Amino acid sequence: MSFLTDGYIGNDREILAEVEGRLGASRLFSFGVGTAVNRYLLEKMAAFGRGAAAFVDLGERAPEDAAALFYERMAHPALADVTIDWGAWRVADVYPQRIPDLVVGRPVVVVGRARGPLPASIVVRGTAGGRPLAYTVPVGPAADHPALAKLWARARIGELDDRAIVAADPRPLIDEARRVALEHGLLSGYTAFIAVDASEATAGGPAPIVPVAVPVPAGVRYESTVPR
Predict the structure, then answer these.
(1) How far apart are CA 38 and CA 8, in angstroms?
(2) Which of 39-43, 137-141, 165-169, 202-206 has the lowest mean pLDDT?
(3) What is the pLDDT of residue 61?
(4) What distances in angstroms separate CA 149 from CA 160, 172, 205, one per listed residue?
(5) What whole-number distance in Å separates Cα of residue 36 and Cα of residue 202?
(6) What pLDDT is recorded for position 142?
(7) What angle do CA 68, 44, 132 make, to 5 degrees?
(8) Nearest in space to 111 (alpha carbons), one of 150, 164, 61
């Protein structure tokens, strides 16, 4: 299923809930044209639909050519229905939980938490052209970097946020996302960073009001978009 738009669409959570509830085993590919499209919604629709999203600026190339190239790649995935056999490696909390199809030019990144010694290899399975395929991928050497835990935490928060969109009671999921963000020191939809500048003491008094410009996408009129 393909979804094309050149305008800014709202009602993000309602649309994503419908996609999650109705799509079934189908794939959803979203394509945005111009600078005023809702990139968050289109990317999330593709993620919920195990597809992909693409965007084209009218000043870069003809949208027809970009759409043709995009759908040519989507119609012939290098590997569909992807699964990973971790072998004896104890792997948990893997994200994304539903691995999207692998297409040319779009890598698939999978993160998780593993215990125990590294295996010599893992097996990636899927289908291509209706035929089952399996690839043995060597593993190692192990890397130790503080950013790796934050990459997993970012993916965990994203998964919890997606599940909260369609949950009957999202509060436990939001609480868990907040806990993970605080534990790993990450900015999220439920946490924020506060910067305190103590280099200069102010004289006090009422806070000044400073007008802040509101940018709009190219090709969108400020007068008809930003309320006064």
Answers:
(1) 5
(2) 202-206
(3) 64
(4) 16, 22, 44
(5) 41
(6) 82
(7) 65
(8) 150
157: left (phi over 0), alpha (psi -120 to 50) or beta: alpha
β-bridge mates for residue 80, sequence order = 127
Q: State the helix-helix crossing angle for 12-22 and 146-166, rounded to 10 degrees.
A: 80
Alpha-carbon gap, residue 210 to 204, rounded angstroms: 16
Q: How many Å apart are CA 193 and CA 184, to the nearest integer?
A: 13
Q: Which residues of 27-53 are buried (b: 16+ CB within 10 A; e: fewer)?
A: bbbbbbbbbbbbeebbbbbbbbbbbbb
> In the chain, which ranges are E strands?
2-5, 29-33, 53-56, 80-85, 90-95, 111-115, 121-128, 131-138
What are residue 18's DSSP bridge partners?
Answer: none
Residue for token digits 């490696």? 89
pLDDT of 218 over the 80 cut: no
Give the pLDDT confidence of 125-172 residue by residue, as tens digits. Answer: 999 988 999 999 998 888 888 899 999 999 999 999 999 988 989 999
Of the candidates 79, 76, 54, the one whose C-alpha atom is nearest the C-alpha of residue 4 is: 54
111-115/2-5 β-pairing: unpaired
Cβ pair 34, 11 in contact under 8 A: no
